[in-house]
């Protein structure tokens, strides 16, 4: 459990027991939000789920041409990934039906975030259900991400979503629609 520590970044959530996986994830994500980071689901099996700091991993330059002249490269297209190893595991106890939280790595290698809005997980979680429904409906109607973002800025200026957030929400809704269609046939 060793890693470069950052005094600024928040601690890992305390080991605990939860009645279900949804409650557990909500609790650890709220803890992360209060401490300047966010979790994402790294791995999920029927009896176990692993969540890591959203700054885990390394930037993948796949699809980028290394021979492109720097003057023609997009600016501000970097990644926030820095190889953070912080993570937790939730395991199902078959006897009680509860999920127990175990900290796999307690420390971060980066400072805490100044604002929770820098994490997509927190922006999307703060989204009102009716706005989420509007985004999905506009996506199903065939509007482009740019058109949806423009509509949101006019109708719901309090929604602090990036175009990528909107694209992800629309893609997830379309995937769910396809899965629902498969199961209904």
From TrEMBL:
Region described as Disordered: 52-82
Domain FAR1: 40-111
Stored InterPro entries: FAR1_DNA_bnd_dom, Zinc_finger_SWIM
Chain intervals with Polar residues compositional bias: 64-74
Xref: Pfam families: FAR1
Compositionally biased spans, kind Basic and acidic residues: 52-63
PANTHER family xrefs: SWIM-TYPE DOMAIN-CONTAINING PROTEIN (PTHR31569)
Name of the protein in its database record: FAR1 domain-containing protein
Species per Swiss-Prot/TrEMBL record: Amorphotheca resinae ATCC 22711
